[in-house]
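Ex. 9. Protein: Sporulation integral membrane protein YlbJ.
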Amino acid sequence: MKQKLYSIIYASVSVFMATMIITFPQEVLKASQRGLDVWANVVFPSLLPFFIVAELLIAFGVVHFIGVLFEPVMRPLFNVPGVGGFVWTMGMASGYPSGAKFTARLRQENQLSKTEAERLVSFTNASNPLFIIGAVSIGFFHDHKLGILLAITHYTSNFFVGICMRFYKYHERNRQSTQHFSITKAMTQLHHARIRDKRALGKILGDSVTQSIQTLLVIGGFIILFSVLTEILREVQIAQFISGGISIILSWFQIPGELALPLLSGIFEITIGANEVASADSSTLIKAILVSVILAFNGFSVQAQVASILAETDIQFTPYFFARLLHGLFAGIIVTILYVPVYKSLQTTNETVIAAIAQPSVDNIQQVYLMFEQMGFIFTLSALFIYLIILMKQKERL
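Predicted structure tokens for Sporulation integral membrane protein YlbJ:
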């Protein structure tokens, strides 16, 4: 009976979306173009190099090397193996859903147990500095100082999520105990891992490119899908109806009800929601709180991407979703606490130590983001062309 109910729900939702696409073709086209623009100009060119390099690092045994070195740190802090340090670092640098992809990849390599992978994916799927400072702070708010506050909040709250999730299935026995720092053992593990991979260098390079681009194509599909879904919900007034309930909840925290609809948009798709929050007429603190929560929650678009990646393994999605709620709670609290000591202090003087250190990094991130906007589409087309060539050659060999 339960499965029949699921069948009816899935079929009804599919029919509803198909009907709405036919009913609002112009609005759907614009939403699709908006999603495609974000994916082709920013997401694809910014994530592809990280994905390819990560595949190479796994193939050449560097991840095993990192795993041995980071074991004395990652195990006591987060109750995960040392290879989690690689996923954590790459996840922060490249942004979501990289943490999920690398966790799933290491689970497939049997370097993580099922429970360890569920702990790891819960706090390694973060936004990257390029998006937080380049797109949100500079692009939407036109205020790079806010980007510093949002970045500190996002990564600090994510760290606390990792600390909390270390207690997930805490009594389950670990596969190995904490090891001591050893360069020799790390090099040995690297060598053995490389030897076990029987693929030729050309094969490794080709597989790295094709696997990375295939993942990014799936990500692009989800971005466009949820961009369209958000627009459909607006057109049929469902979004406005739901935002009415959200506005009641926001009023409990003294947040204006007008921000309910932008928050709902962010719950579905981060970029759209953050842009609408930035355009709203409200105080900077209120908008910083909502954007921090949106970034922490990841949005259903990113969560769907994560779910599709985890579906290839035995990693459960539920711990990751719970961690997103926890991340949103921590982010809202921390951004409120740090608003005055970080953001206000940066506004009052440019001679503080934080501003002196952060300003060059912010300028660099802004330049990189502008470069992606200008050259991203050309890079994406070139990468897809290379992908087709490699794919055709692989099929010829078969």
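Check your answer against this statement. The chain has two domains: 29-358, 365-397.
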